[in-house]
Amino acid sequence: MRSVLRGVAVCSLVACAPPRADDALEPNDDRDSATLLSPGVAVKGRANEHDADVFAVQAAADSRIVFVAADRGLERCPKFQVHDPGGVELVGQPVTGACEAASGETRLIPGALLQDLGDAVSIEVPAARAGAYFLTIMEDGGEDSVAPLSWDYEVTATLGP
Ligand SMILES: [Ca+2]
Ligand SMILES: [Ca+2]
Predict the structure, then answer these.
(1) How far, in Å, is the centroid of ligand 1 from the Cα of 53?
(2) 20-160 has which CATH code?
(3) Are the beta carbons of 93 and 50 closer than 8 angstroms?
């Protein structure tokens, strides 16, 4: 009886609404299950809170990669990470549980750039070595939200010298 009551209490505090359906790219929650991007080809996805979406693109040594994640609707609280083929973080935004508190805490290696373009976010990184580079999209939470947040996006990777 006690466990039933506790379940009810948790439900009322957090959320009774079920999470939204996810995209057809799942599972893609870590680098081992990343969705491979072809340069210049846009891929649509949905980032649900607590469920990372990871994408990979192959780059040549001494090149540059530009990831663009365009807004397609819903709550739009994404945080981004980029890792190199060795797992070294090139760009990092912490998931804080506060949708708004992102940009000031962005970690960038020298030569990396993260720009809010209004209806999209552009993330440019230097690719020093050849191999797979990984973009992770994580939907953050909102302090007052009663249900998990989601963001619909379209992601593209382009390669340059
Ligand atoms: Ca997803
Ligand atoms: Ca995922």
Answers:
(1) 5
(2) 2.60.120.380
(3) no
Q: 10 Å Cβ neighbour count for 142?
A: 17
Average pLDDT over residues 115-128: 96
Task: Please name which ligand lies nearest the alpha carbon of 29.
Answer: 2
* Report field, pTM of the whole predicted structure over 0.85: yes
Average pLDDT over residues 21-34: 97
Q: Does pLDDT of 45 surpass 50?
A: yes
What's the CA-to-centroid distance between 73 and ligand 1, angstroms? 14
Percent of the chain's residues with pLDDT above 70: 87
Ligand sitting nearest the alpha carbon of 153? 1
The pocket of ion ligand 1, defined by CB under 5 A, consists of 22-23, 46, 53
